[in-house]
Write a structure and sequence with these properties.
alpha/beta; 17 strands; about 475 residues
Length: about 475
Protein backbone atom coordinates (compact mmCIF):
# COMPACT_ATOMS: atom_id res chain seq x y z
CA UNK A 1 0.00 0.00 0.00
CA UNK A 2 1.27 3.49 -0.80
CA UNK A 3 0.37 7.08 -0.09
CA UNK A 4 0.05 8.21 -3.72
CA UNK A 5 -3.36 9.24 -5.02
CA UNK A 6 -2.33 8.60 -8.64
CA UNK A 7 -0.41 5.77 -10.26
CA UNK A 8 1.74 8.16 -12.27
CA UNK A 9 2.28 11.79 -13.08
CA UNK A 10 4.02 13.72 -15.83
CA UNK A 11 7.07 15.91 -15.73
CA UNK A 12 8.99 17.83 -18.35
CA UNK A 13 11.14 14.80 -19.03
CA UNK A 14 8.23 12.42 -19.51
CA UNK A 15 6.03 10.21 -17.33
CA UNK A 16 7.35 9.37 -13.86
CA UNK A 17 6.20 6.11 -12.34
CA UNK A 18 5.03 6.21 -8.73
CA UNK A 19 4.94 3.15 -6.47
CA UNK A 20 1.72 1.19 -6.46
CA UNK A 21 -0.98 2.86 -4.41
CA UNK A 22 -4.69 3.15 -3.98
CA UNK A 23 -5.84 6.05 -6.13
CA UNK A 24 -8.17 8.72 -4.92
CA UNK A 25 -8.04 11.90 -6.96
CA UNK A 26 -6.04 13.34 -9.82
CA UNK A 27 -3.64 16.02 -8.51
CA UNK A 28 -4.27 19.58 -9.55
CA UNK A 29 -2.06 21.11 -12.25
CA UNK A 30 1.23 22.32 -10.84
CA UNK A 31 1.04 26.01 -9.90
CA UNK A 32 3.89 28.27 -10.93
CA UNK A 33 6.73 27.77 -8.40
CA UNK A 34 8.73 30.64 -6.92
CA UNK A 35 11.25 31.82 -9.49
CA UNK A 36 13.89 33.49 -7.32
CA UNK A 37 17.13 31.46 -7.10
CA UNK A 38 18.05 29.51 -3.98
CA UNK A 39 20.38 30.93 -1.36
CA UNK A 40 22.59 29.26 1.25
CA UNK A 41 23.40 25.67 2.09
CA UNK A 42 22.63 25.54 5.84
CA UNK A 43 19.32 26.67 7.31
CA UNK A 44 16.79 27.40 4.62
CA UNK A 45 16.73 30.98 3.38
CA UNK A 46 13.50 32.87 2.89
CA UNK A 47 13.32 31.83 -0.76
CA UNK A 48 14.18 28.20 0.02
CA UNK A 49 11.47 28.21 2.69
CA UNK A 50 8.99 29.27 0.02
CA UNK A 51 10.20 26.39 -2.14
CA UNK A 52 9.63 24.04 0.80
CA UNK A 53 6.11 25.40 1.38
CA UNK A 54 5.35 24.97 -2.31
CA UNK A 55 6.47 21.30 -2.36
CA UNK A 56 4.78 20.66 0.99
CA UNK A 57 1.49 21.98 -0.38
CA UNK A 58 1.80 19.82 -3.49
CA UNK A 59 2.57 16.79 -1.31
CA UNK A 60 -0.57 17.29 0.79
CA UNK A 61 -2.64 17.58 -2.40
CA UNK A 62 -1.08 14.46 -3.85
CA UNK A 63 -0.96 11.92 -1.01
CA UNK A 64 -3.75 10.21 0.83
CA UNK A 65 -3.08 11.20 4.44
CA UNK A 66 -5.58 8.63 5.73
CA UNK A 67 -3.23 5.84 4.63
CA UNK A 68 -0.27 7.03 6.71
CA UNK A 69 -1.42 5.23 9.85
CA UNK A 70 -1.74 1.96 7.94
CA UNK A 71 1.97 1.99 7.03
CA UNK A 72 4.99 1.44 9.21
CA UNK A 73 6.86 4.64 9.99
CA UNK A 74 9.84 3.56 7.89
CA UNK A 75 7.64 2.81 4.85
CA UNK A 76 5.70 6.05 5.23
CA UNK A 77 8.88 8.11 5.50
CA UNK A 78 10.42 6.35 2.50
CA UNK A 79 7.37 7.00 0.32
CA UNK A 80 7.19 10.64 1.41
CA UNK A 81 10.84 11.10 0.44
CA UNK A 82 10.26 9.49 -2.94
CA UNK A 83 7.23 11.64 -3.70
CA UNK A 84 9.01 14.83 -2.60
CA UNK A 85 11.88 13.99 -4.93
CA UNK A 86 9.41 13.39 -7.73
CA UNK A 87 7.65 16.71 -7.11
CA UNK A 88 10.99 18.52 -7.04
CA UNK A 89 11.89 16.94 -10.38
CA UNK A 90 8.57 17.98 -11.90
CA UNK A 91 8.79 21.52 -10.53
CA UNK A 92 12.36 22.06 -11.72
CA UNK A 93 13.01 24.36 -8.77
CA UNK A 94 16.36 26.20 -8.94
CA UNK A 95 17.85 24.65 -5.79
CA UNK A 96 21.19 23.01 -5.07
CA UNK A 97 21.52 19.35 -4.13
CA UNK A 98 22.18 20.27 -0.48
CA UNK A 99 19.10 22.49 -0.27
CA UNK A 100 17.04 19.87 -2.08
CA UNK A 101 17.95 17.24 0.52
CA UNK A 102 17.19 19.67 3.34
CA UNK A 103 13.78 20.51 1.86
CA UNK A 104 12.90 16.81 1.60
CA UNK A 105 14.07 16.16 5.18
CA UNK A 106 12.10 19.08 6.61
CA UNK A 107 8.92 18.06 4.79
CA UNK A 108 9.35 14.50 6.02
CA UNK A 109 9.68 15.85 9.58
CA UNK A 110 6.59 18.00 9.10
CA UNK A 111 4.41 15.10 7.96
CA UNK A 112 5.74 12.33 10.20
CA UNK A 113 7.40 14.06 13.13
CA UNK A 114 7.53 17.27 15.12
CA UNK A 115 8.77 19.56 12.40
CA UNK A 116 11.73 21.74 13.44
CA UNK A 117 12.10 19.83 16.71
CA UNK A 118 13.05 16.56 15.01
CA UNK A 119 16.81 17.29 14.83
CA UNK A 120 16.76 18.16 18.54
CA UNK A 121 15.01 14.90 19.39
CA UNK A 122 17.72 12.97 17.56
CA UNK A 123 20.57 14.59 19.51
CA UNK A 124 21.33 12.42 22.57
CA UNK A 125 22.99 15.18 24.60
CA UNK A 126 19.80 17.26 24.89
CA UNK A 127 17.84 16.68 28.12
CA UNK A 128 15.00 19.20 27.71
CA UNK A 129 13.37 21.04 24.82
CA UNK A 130 11.49 24.17 25.85
CA UNK A 131 9.25 25.97 23.36
CA UNK A 132 8.29 29.42 24.66
CA UNK A 133 6.44 30.40 21.51
CA UNK A 134 6.67 29.63 17.82
CA UNK A 135 9.85 31.69 17.43
CA UNK A 136 11.59 30.87 20.72
CA UNK A 137 13.03 27.40 21.39
CA UNK A 138 15.52 26.58 24.15
CA UNK A 139 17.33 23.36 25.02
CA UNK A 140 19.19 22.03 28.02
CA UNK A 141 22.55 20.51 27.15
CA UNK A 142 25.09 19.53 29.80
CA UNK A 143 22.91 21.04 32.51
CA UNK A 144 22.90 24.48 30.86
CA UNK A 145 20.10 26.24 28.97
CA UNK A 146 20.83 27.63 25.52
CA UNK A 147 18.80 28.95 22.63
CA UNK A 148 18.23 26.47 19.81
CA UNK A 149 18.87 27.35 16.18
CA UNK A 150 15.35 26.53 15.05
CA UNK A 151 11.85 27.95 15.14
CA UNK A 152 8.35 27.29 13.90
CA UNK A 153 7.02 29.21 10.93
CA UNK A 154 4.05 30.61 12.82
CA UNK A 155 1.78 30.09 15.84
CA UNK A 156 -0.45 27.90 13.67
CA UNK A 157 2.56 25.79 12.68
CA UNK A 158 3.32 25.20 16.38
CA UNK A 159 -0.32 24.41 17.14
CA UNK A 160 -0.41 21.88 14.30
CA UNK A 161 2.54 20.03 15.82
CA UNK A 162 0.93 20.17 19.28
CA UNK A 163 -2.32 18.77 17.91
CA UNK A 164 -0.37 15.93 16.27
CA UNK A 165 1.20 15.04 19.64
CA UNK A 166 -1.96 15.05 21.72
CA UNK A 167 -4.18 13.26 19.20
CA UNK A 168 -1.71 10.36 19.08
CA UNK A 169 -2.39 9.69 22.78
CA UNK A 170 -6.16 10.18 22.53
CA UNK A 171 -6.22 13.63 24.12
CA UNK A 172 -7.40 17.03 22.98
CA UNK A 173 -6.29 20.57 23.66
CA UNK A 174 -8.47 23.64 23.18
CA UNK A 175 -9.81 26.57 25.18
CA UNK A 176 -11.94 24.26 27.33
CA UNK A 177 -8.92 22.03 28.04
CA UNK A 178 -5.84 24.25 27.63
CA UNK A 179 -3.31 22.03 29.46
CA UNK A 180 -2.19 18.54 28.45
CA UNK A 181 0.41 16.02 29.59
CA UNK A 182 1.39 13.49 26.93
CA UNK A 183 4.20 11.20 25.92
CA UNK A 184 6.11 10.81 22.69
CA UNK A 185 6.74 7.43 21.09
CA UNK A 186 10.26 7.30 22.52
CA UNK A 187 8.92 7.80 26.07
CA UNK A 188 9.75 11.51 26.37
CA UNK A 189 7.32 13.48 28.52
CA UNK A 190 5.47 16.45 27.02
CA UNK A 191 3.59 19.25 28.75
CA UNK A 192 1.61 21.74 26.66
CA UNK A 193 -0.25 24.88 27.69
CA UNK A 194 -2.05 27.21 25.27
CA UNK A 195 -3.97 30.50 25.41
CA UNK A 196 -5.84 31.82 27.28
CA UNK A 197 -3.63 30.40 30.05
CA UNK A 198 -0.40 31.01 28.08
CA UNK A 199 -0.55 34.73 27.38
CA UNK A 200 2.10 34.96 24.65
CA UNK A 201 1.11 31.88 22.67
CA UNK A 202 1.38 28.14 23.05
CA UNK A 203 4.24 26.79 25.19
CA UNK A 204 5.57 23.24 25.20
CA UNK A 205 8.10 21.45 27.41
CA UNK A 206 9.64 18.11 26.43
CA UNK A 207 11.62 16.09 28.99
CA UNK A 208 13.72 13.68 26.99
CA UNK A 209 13.63 9.96 27.71
CA UNK A 210 17.15 8.67 28.32
CA UNK A 211 17.78 5.36 26.60
CA UNK A 212 21.22 4.78 28.10
CA UNK A 213 21.21 3.11 31.50
CA UNK A 214 23.79 4.69 33.77
CA UNK A 215 25.70 2.60 36.30
CA UNK A 216 26.77 3.56 39.80
CA UNK A 217 30.39 3.48 38.56
CA UNK A 218 29.57 6.14 35.97
CA UNK A 219 27.98 8.35 38.65
CA UNK A 220 31.12 7.99 40.77
CA UNK A 221 33.41 8.77 37.83
CA UNK A 222 31.24 11.75 36.89
CA UNK A 223 31.51 13.20 40.40
CA UNK A 224 27.83 12.81 41.24
CA UNK A 225 28.48 10.70 44.35
CA UNK A 226 31.41 9.34 46.35
CA UNK A 227 32.38 5.66 46.29
CA UNK A 228 31.64 5.37 50.03
CA UNK A 229 28.16 6.87 49.74
CA UNK A 230 27.44 4.69 46.70
CA UNK A 231 28.48 1.59 48.65
CA UNK A 232 26.13 2.50 51.49
CA UNK A 233 23.19 2.99 49.10
CA UNK A 234 23.94 -0.34 47.45
CA UNK A 235 23.86 -2.07 50.84
CA UNK A 236 20.69 -0.15 51.77
CA UNK A 237 18.86 -1.42 48.68
CA UNK A 238 20.14 -4.97 49.08
CA UNK A 239 19.21 -4.84 52.78
CA UNK A 240 15.63 -3.85 51.91
CA UNK A 241 15.59 -0.38 53.44
CA UNK A 242 12.87 1.98 52.23
CA UNK A 243 14.51 4.86 50.36
CA UNK A 244 13.19 8.20 49.11
CA UNK A 245 15.16 10.19 46.53
CA UNK A 246 14.43 13.90 46.99
CA UNK A 247 15.30 16.74 44.64
CA UNK A 248 14.12 19.62 42.52
CA UNK A 249 12.99 19.66 38.90
CA UNK A 250 15.64 18.26 36.58
CA UNK A 251 17.97 17.30 39.44
CA UNK A 252 18.32 13.68 38.32
CA UNK A 253 15.90 11.93 40.68
CA UNK A 254 14.69 9.39 38.13
CA UNK A 255 18.22 8.71 36.91
CA UNK A 256 19.38 7.94 40.45
CA UNK A 257 16.29 5.83 41.10
CA UNK A 258 17.12 3.78 37.99
CA UNK A 259 20.65 3.24 39.27
CA UNK A 260 19.47 2.21 42.75
CA UNK A 261 16.93 -0.20 41.30
CA UNK A 262 19.83 -2.05 39.69
CA UNK A 263 20.81 -3.32 43.16
CA UNK A 264 17.49 -5.13 43.63
CA UNK A 265 18.13 -8.89 43.48
CA UNK A 266 17.03 -10.70 40.33
CA UNK A 267 14.71 -13.05 42.23
CA UNK A 268 12.52 -10.20 43.52
CA UNK A 269 9.13 -9.45 41.97
CA UNK A 270 9.16 -5.71 41.29
CA UNK A 271 6.09 -3.60 40.49
CA UNK A 272 6.68 -0.07 39.17
CA UNK A 273 4.08 2.69 39.26
CA UNK A 274 4.52 5.87 37.23
CA UNK A 275 2.65 8.80 35.74
CA UNK A 276 4.82 8.54 32.65
CA UNK A 277 6.92 5.40 32.15
CA UNK A 278 10.58 6.40 32.53
CA UNK A 279 12.02 3.79 34.88
CA UNK A 280 14.44 1.35 33.29
CA UNK A 281 14.39 -1.65 35.58
CA UNK A 282 17.16 -4.13 35.01
CA UNK A 283 15.47 -7.15 36.58
CA UNK A 284 13.60 -9.81 34.64
CA UNK A 285 10.57 -10.13 36.95
CA UNK A 286 9.04 -6.65 36.59
CA UNK A 287 5.42 -5.53 36.19
CA UNK A 288 5.15 -1.95 34.93
CA UNK A 289 2.02 0.08 35.71
CA UNK A 290 1.21 3.54 34.37
CA UNK A 291 -1.53 5.97 35.25
CA UNK A 292 -4.22 6.85 32.73
CA UNK A 293 -5.56 10.38 32.26
CA UNK A 294 -9.27 11.01 31.71
CA UNK A 295 -10.53 10.67 28.15
CA UNK A 296 -12.11 13.44 26.09
CA UNK A 297 -15.35 13.03 28.04
CA UNK A 298 -13.46 13.38 31.33
CA UNK A 299 -13.88 9.72 32.31
CA UNK A 300 -11.71 6.69 32.83
CA UNK A 301 -8.93 8.29 34.91
CA UNK A 302 -6.72 5.89 36.88
CA UNK A 303 -4.36 7.71 39.26
CA UNK A 304 -1.31 6.52 41.17
CA UNK A 305 -3.27 5.97 44.37
CA UNK A 306 -5.48 3.38 42.67
CA UNK A 307 -2.45 1.69 41.15
CA UNK A 308 -0.68 1.47 44.53
CA UNK A 309 -3.75 -0.15 46.06
CA UNK A 310 -3.93 -2.60 43.17
CA UNK A 311 -0.19 -3.33 43.34
CA UNK A 312 -0.58 -4.53 46.93
CA UNK A 313 -2.82 -7.32 45.59
CA UNK A 314 -0.20 -8.47 43.10
CA UNK A 315 2.24 -10.11 45.55
CA UNK A 316 5.09 -7.60 45.14
CA UNK A 317 8.50 -8.03 46.75
CA UNK A 318 9.31 -4.42 45.98
CA UNK A 319 7.20 -1.45 44.94
CA UNK A 320 8.94 1.33 43.01
CA UNK A 321 6.97 4.55 42.52
CA UNK A 322 8.35 6.99 39.99
CA UNK A 323 7.31 10.03 42.04
CA UNK A 324 4.78 10.53 44.82
CA UNK A 325 2.70 13.63 44.21
CA UNK A 326 -0.58 13.16 46.04
CA UNK A 327 -2.79 10.82 48.04
CA UNK A 328 -0.78 7.76 47.02
CA UNK A 329 1.75 8.83 49.69
CA UNK A 330 -0.57 7.44 52.37
CA UNK A 331 -0.92 4.08 50.62
CA UNK A 332 2.84 4.01 50.05
CA UNK A 333 3.46 4.44 53.78
CA UNK A 334 0.91 1.72 54.51
CA UNK A 335 2.68 -0.63 52.10
CA UNK A 336 6.10 0.10 53.61
CA UNK A 337 4.68 -0.58 57.07
CA UNK A 338 3.04 -3.89 56.14
CA UNK A 339 5.90 -6.03 54.92
CA UNK A 340 6.72 -4.41 51.57
CA UNK A 341 10.11 -3.20 52.69
CA UNK A 342 12.80 -2.29 50.21
CA UNK A 343 10.52 0.08 48.33
CA UNK A 344 11.89 3.07 46.39
CA UNK A 345 10.36 6.35 45.27
CA UNK A 346 11.17 9.98 44.52
CA UNK A 347 9.67 13.22 45.78
CA UNK A 348 9.96 16.83 44.70
CA UNK A 349 11.62 18.71 47.59
CA UNK A 350 14.65 20.90 48.17
CA UNK A 351 15.88 19.34 51.43
CA UNK A 352 15.33 16.05 53.29
CA UNK A 353 13.35 17.92 55.93
CA UNK A 354 11.15 19.48 53.24
CA UNK A 355 10.58 15.98 51.85
CA UNK A 356 9.11 14.84 55.17
CA UNK A 357 6.85 17.90 55.28
CA UNK A 358 5.65 17.21 51.75
CA UNK A 359 4.84 13.58 52.58
CA UNK A 360 2.84 14.77 55.57
CA UNK A 361 0.91 17.21 53.39
CA UNK A 362 0.27 14.60 50.70
CA UNK A 363 -1.14 12.12 53.21
CA UNK A 364 -3.88 14.66 53.95
CA UNK A 365 -4.72 14.62 50.20
CA UNK A 366 -5.73 10.98 50.54
CA UNK A 367 -8.84 12.05 52.43
CA UNK A 368 -7.76 10.55 55.78
CA UNK A 369 -8.14 12.67 58.89
CA UNK A 370 -5.15 11.75 61.05
CA UNK A 371 -3.36 13.90 63.65
CA UNK A 372 0.00 15.24 62.50
CA UNK A 373 1.83 13.22 65.17
CA UNK A 374 0.22 9.99 63.94
CA UNK A 375 1.26 10.71 60.36
CA UNK A 376 4.82 11.44 61.46
CA UNK A 377 4.97 8.16 63.36
CA UNK A 378 3.88 6.41 60.18
CA UNK A 379 6.68 8.15 58.28
CA UNK A 380 9.26 7.17 60.91
CA UNK A 381 8.11 3.54 60.81
CA UNK A 382 8.06 3.41 57.01
CA UNK A 383 10.97 5.48 55.65
CA UNK A 384 14.59 4.66 56.45
CA UNK A 385 16.78 6.77 54.16
CA UNK A 386 16.35 10.07 52.29
CA UNK A 387 18.82 10.84 49.49
CA UNK A 388 18.96 14.49 48.45
CA UNK A 389 20.14 15.22 44.91
CA UNK A 390 20.64 18.66 43.42
CA UNK A 391 21.53 20.30 40.12
CA UNK A 392 24.24 22.85 40.85
CA UNK A 393 24.99 26.13 39.11
CA UNK A 394 27.50 24.50 36.75
CA UNK A 395 24.81 22.13 35.50
CA UNK A 396 26.22 19.06 37.25
CA UNK A 397 23.95 16.86 39.32
CA UNK A 398 25.25 15.69 42.68
CA UNK A 399 24.01 13.78 45.69
CA UNK A 400 24.39 16.50 48.33
CA UNK A 401 23.10 14.67 51.41
CA UNK A 402 22.17 11.18 52.63
CA UNK A 403 20.20 11.15 55.87
CA UNK A 404 18.76 8.41 58.05
CA UNK A 405 15.46 8.79 59.87
CA UNK A 406 16.04 7.86 63.50
CA UNK A 407 12.77 8.35 65.37
CA UNK A 408 10.80 11.07 67.11
CA UNK A 409 11.47 13.50 69.91
CA UNK A 410 8.13 14.82 71.02
CA UNK A 411 6.39 15.69 67.76
CA UNK A 412 9.57 16.22 65.73
CA UNK A 413 11.10 13.58 63.44
CA UNK A 414 14.80 13.20 64.16
CA UNK A 415 17.33 12.58 61.39
CA UNK A 416 21.07 12.06 61.18
CA UNK A 417 23.24 12.99 58.20
CA UNK A 418 25.59 10.22 57.10
CA UNK A 419 27.15 11.76 53.96
CA UNK A 420 27.24 15.28 52.56
CA UNK A 421 28.73 17.26 49.70
CA UNK A 422 30.63 20.20 51.16
CA UNK A 423 30.99 22.97 48.61
CA UNK A 424 33.76 25.52 48.89
CA UNK A 425 32.93 27.91 46.10
CA UNK A 426 33.02 28.32 42.32
CA UNK A 427 36.13 28.38 40.16
CA UNK A 428 36.06 28.89 36.39
CA UNK A 429 32.31 28.34 36.44
CA UNK A 430 32.64 24.97 38.21
CA UNK A 431 31.39 24.26 41.73
CA UNK A 432 34.31 23.22 43.94
CA UNK A 433 33.74 20.88 46.85
CA UNK A 434 34.22 17.40 48.28
CA UNK A 435 32.11 14.47 49.43
CA UNK A 436 32.52 13.59 53.09
CA UNK A 437 31.21 11.02 55.50
CA UNK A 438 30.12 12.69 58.74
CA UNK A 439 31.51 9.91 60.93
CA UNK A 440 28.11 8.84 62.28
CA UNK A 441 27.37 5.12 62.26
CA UNK A 442 23.75 4.64 61.13
CA UNK A 443 21.18 2.91 63.33
CA UNK A 444 20.52 0.53 60.41
CA UNK A 445 24.10 -0.78 60.43
CA UNK A 446 23.25 -3.88 62.47
CA UNK A 447 20.20 -4.56 60.30
CA UNK A 448 22.33 -4.42 57.14
CA UNK A 449 24.90 -6.78 58.69
CA UNK A 450 22.14 -9.25 59.58
CA UNK A 451 20.84 -9.08 56.02
CA UNK A 452 24.21 -10.29 54.80
CA UNK A 453 25.20 -7.13 52.91
CA UNK A 454 28.84 -6.26 52.40
CA UNK A 455 28.66 -3.26 54.75
CA UNK A 456 31.74 -1.95 56.53
CA UNK A 457 32.21 0.69 59.22
CA UNK A 458 35.14 2.03 57.23
CA UNK A 459 32.86 3.75 54.71
CA UNK A 460 31.45 5.96 57.48
CA UNK A 461 34.83 7.32 58.54
CA UNK A 462 35.24 11.03 57.69
CA UNK A 463 36.66 11.26 54.17
CA UNK A 464 40.02 12.90 53.56
CA UNK A 465 39.54 16.35 52.05
CA UNK A 466 39.46 16.40 48.25
CA UNK A 467 38.95 18.93 45.52
CA UNK A 468 41.24 21.70 46.78
Amino acid sequence: MGLWNTPSSKSKSGPVEAPSAAVRTQPKPLPQPPSQPSEGRGALSGTDSKHKEFIHKRLIETIDLSKINSLSEDDARRQIRELCQQLLDESALPVSVAVRLRIVQQIEDEVMGLGPLEPLLEEPGIADILVNGFDSVYIERGGKLERADCRFDSEQHLRNVIDRIVTRVGRRIDESSPMVDARLQDGSRVNVIIPPLAIDGAAMSIRRFTVKKLSIEELIEGGSISAEAAKFLQCAVEGRLNIIVSGGTGSGKTTLLNVLSGFIPEDNRVITIEDSAELQMQQEHVVRLETRPPNIEGRGEVNQQKLVINALRMRPDRIVIGEVRGGEAFDMLQAMNTGHDGSLTTIHANTPRDALTRIENMVSMAGVDLPAKTVRRQVVSAVNIIVQIQRLEDGKRKVVSIQEINGMEGEIITMSELFRFERRGIKDGQVIGAFNATGLIPDCFGHLEQRGTDISMAIFQPTAERGR
